Protein 1
Amino acid sequence: MSPHPKTLPPLSAEAETQPLPPDAVGLNADANPVLSVFDFDGTLTRHDSFVPFLKFAFGQRGFNQRILKLALPSLGYLTRRVDRDRLKAQLISTFLKGIEAAWLQQQAEAFCLKSWTRLMRPSGLQAVAGELRSGALVTLCSASPALVLQPFATRLGIRLIGTELEVVDGVLTGRIAGHNCRCENKVLRLESVYGPLNQYRLRAWGDTRGDRELLAAAQDAHWRHFHPAWRRGLGAR
């Protein structure tokens, strides 16, 4: 297998325990700095990216073999006997347990390269670029695995906060490290990296129930901002 291209690594758990110092975020006496936070799936993208990534990485046959094992948990989710976090944990375990982290990173690089044009919303890309030009701190904050999204964050030129996967000796255990990065955990993860959010002017973009707490914490909240107008009034999934 060819060497994996070097990319910016995802934020480690240790890194998240230390908020960024004031001089690292451009604090000054005149105004609070702007922190611009974008959800990824469905906000910057046209649809979910994780399941398409799994199809890409494992191939249609390998994907089908694994997805069949999730038939009962999926039925439990539809009948509300299994919650979203538990279903996601089972999805990750079924597909990623015993997989080398380096292989997953290589697949993520290839998936980003192949899917970028059809996956990303042009208006979302323009918004990210605009926030960067304005001097704001810009980050993705997503429930998708950070290992999978890192190539996208690198290409966008922004930081990444995502769901961390447990890795032991270079191999994925199939478990999430910490919590699924959605709902209140998005706010907690942001605070662990950037410190108290009240020191910023927080701008946030999201599109589902998992973004509600993030949007509620923001002074400038954007709900389905890049979606067609007819979809912006629909309720969260």
Protein 2
Amino acid sequence: LATSVDKGECMGGSTLSLLHDKTFNYTGDSQAQELCLYLTKAASVPYFEILEKWIYRGIINDPYSEFMVEEHELQKEKIQEDYNDKYWDQRYTVVQQQIPSFLQKMADKILSTGKYLNVVRECGRDVTCPVAKEVIYTLKERAYVEQIEKAYNYASKVLLDFLMEEKELVAHLRSIKHYFLMDQGDFFVHFMDLTEEELKKPVDDIITTRLEALLELALRMSTANTDPFKDDLKIDLMPHDLITQLLRVLAIETKQEKAIISADPTELTLSGLEAFSFDYIVKWPLSLIINRKALTRYQMLFRHMFYCKHVERQLCNVWISNKTAKQFSLHSAKWFAGAFTLRQRMLNFVQNIQYYMMFEVMEPTWHILEKNLKLASNIDDVLSHHTSFLDNCLKDCMLTNPELLKIFSKLMSVCVMFTNCMQRFTQSMKLDNEMDRFTLEHGTMLGPPTEEERAEETAKKKLTSKLLAEHADNLHLTSGFEATINKFDSNFSTHLLDLLDKLSVYSTNDCEHSMLNIIYR
């Protein structure tokens, strides 16, 4: 035995494995087996003392590195800062060669049991398993299994109850959903009304404290004021746009994308709208679930939907500013009818995409998450369900498919360029209209207008409408308005058909049937 231990350079768990195997091998020789059993029991005492401390209290006291669980020095605070930090996976790991062969099947549960208790202990709670019993070596594995199972069940319940009840995990997730998945409608109307002008500026010109103040105002003015965690919501101006962020996460390495990823953020001039996102302050131990990796995924979903909402608002603003078209002549009206039809098609597309993402992807997936969290028996289940929720949302919102995302981005760009073009055109109409309006205003200090003044004003309005219509005709002829609108129409239709074709292919090949809903819309 001593020679075998020496030749195998065994220590700790590997020594117990060798002794355990030898004990079994001497089944026909009672004296030799009894001797081996005695030696194994004696050798296992210090190892089982470390094991008991781990599974009953979540503490490792292993000065000679003999135990099956190894501790690594990682700071839990970094979970909030580093996307790639894997505190939960890497703080404690199993050392395979130190697992005694008779505990091999229970290795994962032993690791999880101590990890669960360790989290609660790091929150300042002293936890001790009430069903703790001394672990003694025996040839009957069932004795170990029962003791470890009891310790595991206790540790799972303690941590789960601690996170769910005392730390209100579900309430925090619901709060994040309100803001990042945009289900708090009136808050976003207030917020976008307040910040629209500020977010149009280049990102370097935006005063973050001003945005923070406007966010605070929007929160207080809306139903979000009742949210107890609203103060954890913060403004974050990202150094890159959504596409670049997604390429970084997906690690796509084409030449063009490498250039985008490696570009200095200062080289890319972002507007506030392109750089804007929310961030959320998460404290330990909730940061185990809502870590930086999860928050980054929430941010990607938010930025995607926020930009869609911005495009929708721009298209609605075009509709408001185009009311002057009622005064145009029949000749120019037919060209404007084409522009208005295109605007409505764009608006229908953007609204349908938003409806699909919010009510056919996020809401059903969220309800599944809530249901699964109620049934979860341990923290690993919670982590798994939350990750699945975010993965499904990203996938069904086309954010994990670069090809679909690029086509969608082109569609959004066409919509934005169209709204800018229409706003410039109607702005020139408004300038003439404003000049005429000043001549039609009646001095209120002189009292109500007389019949003659009313008749004169009506005549002037008719003349103004006629001049405005003629101006529209001239502007239409000189600016190539018809050709411009036709080009927008052609580009929009091409990209839209391309998107629908690709969606059809991906939904069929990858069995992603939820994406078919976009086509049916």
Protein 3
Amino acid sequence: MSERGLNLKIADFVIASILSSIHYLFTNLYDKHVPDPYMDEVFHIPQVRQYCNGNYRDYDPMLTTPPLMYFLTVATFLCGRERAFNSIMIGLCYLAAAKYGLKQTKQANRWAAVAVCTLPVLFQTSCLYYTDMLSLTLVLAGLSMENKAGSAMVFMLSCLSRQTNIIWAGFYCFCGLIDHLKTVGDDVVVDGKRSSREKRKHDSTLKENSGSTAKKNNSSTVSSKANSSSITSSFDYIKATVYCVVLHWPFAILGAMFVYYLIWNDGSIVLGDKTAHQLHLHLPQLLYFLLFTMLSSSMHVLPRLSQVLRISWYYKPLLVVISVFMALSVHYFSYTHPYLLADNRHYVFYIWNRFMLRYTYFKYAIIPGDILSLVYFFHTLNASSVYFTLGLLLSTAATVIPAHLVEFRYFIIPYAIWRLNVNEKAPKCVCNFVEIVVNVILIVVTTYLFVFHPFEWSHEPGRKQRFMW
């Protein structure tokens, strides 16, 4: 596809406007029935209003993320209507998602971009004054850019929204390296085929020549050329790697800035209150992400189910070994955050208390589902290189495994990147349409529960609590 063909169309801007308008209606509903700051908003909104009043000196020590969202809210004149900020962001998020999907698959897939923006956990948290939509938008925008300096700048902004986005900057560089080496590899393959033709020509010459001396000389020539070709190809890969590293020099600056930030912040990635964000080797987080991915895209599982089962059977010895490692990680590296036990406002609280904690072996019983999710994850990315898939999985692991708390919000960015790289199957329009319909139904149901079915805690009478992701 031509470079011009990789540009967004008028239809994309129309869809972005529609999404922003619909989202604004939802934020109005939230503002009407939940006018006071709720959940994490009790930290975000007072802080942004300090900025609105011109006080840029004080920063709430309970806040763990940098202040980019607050600066942008002031810049867009949304003081007093802070939730509407995400109504703007969802339109920009769609454009970034559409652009990234176009770059990766070389075809317009607006359905996938809409599916990402209507992911229920993302949509609901964005109806509140949360950083998720801004963070996702900046990461997708950075990934969609070809210009390295521009991309590094966008990723720097993304880190000012959420610090762990530095991992996705590294993922961008890794993908650039893989793409560049693939180009070199294709050239080497072409040269290799040419060398094979030359070898066959020499073999033919050997048959025509008589005398052992002639055969020895020609064999020596072929061997010499083969060794020369091998050395040349190795040199090409080394040269390409060095060139690619130099090409991504703006990211070296970004990396140095992030290292300085870590030193300045006493080695911690989070700002402010660090007690609730201690690092853990929480290996099952990756398994939860894989299950989340499969369940969130269940409409795409059905057309692939027979293939996923067939692949699982074919690789059963390997998957048995992986299952053992999964069981060990679940047994030795499962953690339960105090918030998960105490806060019944989140849906994950009920999953944990009614299943994971009530039934001792439940966490082991879902391992077959984890295995199918892993196979599904790789199968849906079969149009991408195996290095890309492994890079995405490792980047996801680096993002979610250190987190003590199990929270669906942590899965949003890796899920979005995966979803926009999925190799669509026919009839893709039906699956995508049903996927979006299911998303909308979940959004409506969760919004209804949040807005119209509050409850109270016995120790905080008169204060309404609400269900959310």
